[in-house]
Write a structure and sequence with these properties.
Largest sheet: 6 strands, parallel
Helix content: 40-55%
Order of helices and strands: HEHEHHEHEHHEHHEHEEHEEHE
Strand content: 15-25%
Length: 246
């Protein structure tokens, strides 16, 4: 085999590896949005989630039991599709759900849910899921630009959306990242909750390691797999842990 043929084969292999990496990275962009009972208009949060879908995120929405009775379900269906909506009573094996999604967002966190989480009163599937995610070190993003809204508008109807500063502080200590509604899509795009990515490619070369996002700290690969010595060395240099899929 001539050097030119070898070079040609190497280019083909490299292109296939890059395509596999791109596809697996895209598939790893799974976002879980949780909406509880809120008086807050959902148009703007849903627009932010729609932007995330346009940026390649696969989104599932979980509605609390009370949310199904008070929020505009038709609006959520229209924006994200009925097939992407789960109700709280449909949840099973919550730990596996937490493991599946790379980021969790609370786009319209209400006072009751925030209070329960702050006090560790995880007596519903949704609050348990959120608290379990925090306990596992997952990034949980909560929109908070409705804080202190009562002082600005003085409307009693907004009480459900008034989150106590004490609860904000406690949830921050638990690991909740607070943003304004306008920052939801931007923050989701910037933050990788676990610094972890999964790939399904037969060979992990040094190029695969080099082209990983800069914030990745763990690469999970399917077994069996071939990891080149240079790839292992480069991963170690970058502080990236190579983990076989369980």
């Amino acid at each position: 085999m001539t050097p030119e043929q070898i070079e040609h084969i190497e280019k083909i292999v490299e292109r296939v590896l890059q395509e596999n990496l791109h596809n697996s990275t895209h598939a790893n962009k799974k976002l879980l949005a949780i909406i509880g009972a809120t008086h807050r208009p959902l148009e703007q949060p849903l627009q932010q989630l729609q932007t995330c879908t346009q940026n390649g995120w696969n989104i599932k929405i979980i509605l609390s039991e009370l949310a199904t009775k008070v929020v505009d379900l038709a609006l959520i269906d229209e924006v994200l599709g009925e097939e992407n909506i789960l109700q709280e009573n449909e949840l099973t094996n919550i730990p596996s759900i937490v493991d599946e999604y790379t980021q969790i967002v609370l786009p319209a966190l209400s006072y009751p849910m925030a209070g329960k989480l702050a006090l560790k009163l995880v007596d519903t599937p949704v609050t348990y899921l959120i608290f379990h995610a925090l306990s596992c070190g997952k990034q949980v993003i909560a929109a908070a630009d409705f804080l202190n809204r009562r002082e600005l508008l003085n409307k009693k109807s907004l009480i459900l959306d008034e989150i106590e500063q004490e609860h904000v502080n406690t949830l921050s200590e638990f690991g909740v990242k607070w943003v304004t509604v306008e920052q939801i899509a931007e923050t989701i795009g910037e933050v990788d909750a676990t610094n972890r990515i999964s790939i399904n490619t037969p060979v992990i070369s040094v190029a695969v390691i080099t082209n990983l996002p800069s914030n990745v700290k763990e690469l999970v690969y399917a077994k069996p797999n071939v990891i080149t010595p240079l790839a292992r060395e480069h991963a170690k240099k970058l502080g990236i842990r190579l983990t076989p899929e369980q």
